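Title: Comparing notes on inverse folding

I've been comparing how different people in this forum approach sequence design from structure. To keep things fair, I'm posting one structure and asking everyone to reply with a full sequence. Here's the target:
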């Protein structure tokens, strides 16, 4: 491993904790506080607990861990805070601090090592898992399991199974390493980071992303040695794993002289844009991370910043837009996806109430805290249904999985599309 200071404490930094003046103006923006009404499950309450631990007045107890883990890390509180508290950095640090100091039961530690240390980071393991998922779905076993209701006897397994994404063959892994030429005059040379699970479950979205970029004069490179961005690792407190992935992504893209490095996943983009913080103690990669971050853009941000080619034919469609938390709160990108939708003739946007309140997806939160996630989803679907829109649009694969389940369980089975897929449909119509 390159020179990195492995000895520093991951604990929340005092300067970040000090910014909170305990005013409580963030409480109403917090999904867990809105659900439970419990101060310790609010941003202010969680920061208070972090301060207690940081000052040595409280230990890292099971209670403390539970309150930190029930947080969605949606950063809704960050947008609401008038004091500029960087809550995202605080919660990530609090979880990494827990990971650094707490010995978990062996089976939990093993599962975490497997998921974060191997599965998400290794292309062949993900492909194998994707093949298993494909067999489960294509063989009809999934239909049988769902219709039998068998899983209802195993805790929340029934609800969790409803969240299984589709395995989309051929997987996008087969496109990694390729270069796609610009359509017409070449205006930009861009790199596309295809994600990890998205290569399996959002292969068609990734293809649509490439097509839209080509249509807009981009030569699209899918760098060969790219890997998972590390967002799920950071959210779970596994910062050392995330650092290794970050360095690899930097090495895969930085020397390519790209005009921009792009992602279509808001959750990934938020972490990719914060590689400088992740690698701030790394003497070799600190500056490289800053250079990488300067080129890193969400696909909506990129498209809204260039003159996009107007689709020739209208696409008659009413849509409602769910702000992905890590796009609107994490990256402060709200206008750009709406601008892209507005550029598509025939598309009508019907805004939903509280579009920037988390849908309950939050990475793998909907699996780990399924009850809370499903409760948030139910509320979200009420807002969606009230718009009468025929299609739900968002900007993050994780949100798409959650909203697809919401449309099946509480909606009208509305299709769920990424902004880029709407634009792609318009180009192809
Ligand atoms: S990140 Fe989201 S869930 Fe966590 S405290 Fe802030 S608003 Fe609440
Ligand atoms: S995080 Fe911000 S809004 Fe919330 S209590 Fe602290 S200072 Fe107030």
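Reply #1:
Here's my take.
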């Amino acid at each position: 491993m390159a020179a990195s200071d492995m000895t520093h404490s991951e604990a929340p930094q005092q300067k970040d904790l000090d910014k909170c003046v305990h005013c409580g103006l963030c409480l109403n923006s917090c999904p867990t506080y809105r659900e439970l009404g419990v101060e310790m499950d609010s941003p202010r309450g969680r920061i208070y607990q972090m301060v207690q631990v940081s000052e040595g007045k409280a230990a890292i107890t099971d209670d403390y861990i539970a309150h930190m883990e029930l947080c969605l890390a949606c950063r809704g509180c960050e947008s609401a805070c008038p004091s500029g508290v960087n809550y995202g950095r605080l919660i990530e640090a609090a979880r990494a601090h827990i990971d650094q100091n707490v010995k978990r039961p062996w089976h939990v530690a093993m599962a975490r090592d497997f998921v974060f240390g191997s599965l998400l980071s290794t292309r062949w393991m993900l492909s194998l898992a994707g093949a298993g998922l494909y067999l489960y779905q294509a063989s009809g076993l999934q239909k049988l399991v769902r219709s039998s209701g068998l899983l209802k006897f195993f805790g929340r397994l029934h609800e969790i199974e409803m969240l299984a994404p589709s395995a989309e063959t051929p997987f996008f892994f087969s496109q990694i390493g390729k270069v796609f030429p610009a359509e017409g005059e070449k205006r930009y040379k861009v790199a596309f980071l295809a994600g990890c699970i998205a290569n399996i479950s959002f292969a068609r979205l990734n293809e649509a992303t490439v097509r839209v970029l080509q249509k807009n004069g981009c030569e699209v490179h899918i760098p060969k040695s790219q890997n998972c961005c590390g967002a799920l690792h950071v959210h779970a407190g596994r910062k050392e794993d995330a650092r290794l992935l970050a360095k690899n992504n930097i090495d895969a893209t930085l020397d390519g002289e790209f005009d921009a490095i792009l992602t279509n996943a808001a959750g990934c983009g938020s972490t990719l844009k914060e590689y400088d913080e992740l690698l701030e103690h790394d003497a070799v990669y600190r500056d490289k991370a800053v250079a990488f971050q300067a080129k890193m853009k969400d696909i909506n941000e990129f498209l809204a910043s260039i003159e996009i080619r107007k689709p020739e034919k209208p696409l008659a469609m009413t849509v409602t837009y769910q702000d992905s938390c890590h796009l609107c709160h994490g990256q402060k990108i709200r206008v750009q996806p709406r601008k892209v939708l507005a550029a598509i003739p025939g598309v009508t946007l019907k805004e939903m109430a509280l579009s920037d309140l988390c849908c309950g997806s939050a990475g793998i939160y909907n699996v780990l805290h399924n009850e809370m996630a499903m409760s948030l989803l139910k509320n979200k679907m009420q807002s969606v249904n009230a718009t009468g829109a025929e299609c739900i649009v968002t900007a993050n694969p994780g949100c798409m999985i959650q909203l697809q389940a919401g449309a099946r369980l509480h909606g009208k089975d509305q299709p769920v599309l990424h902004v880029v897929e709407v634009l792609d449909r318009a180009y192809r119509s």
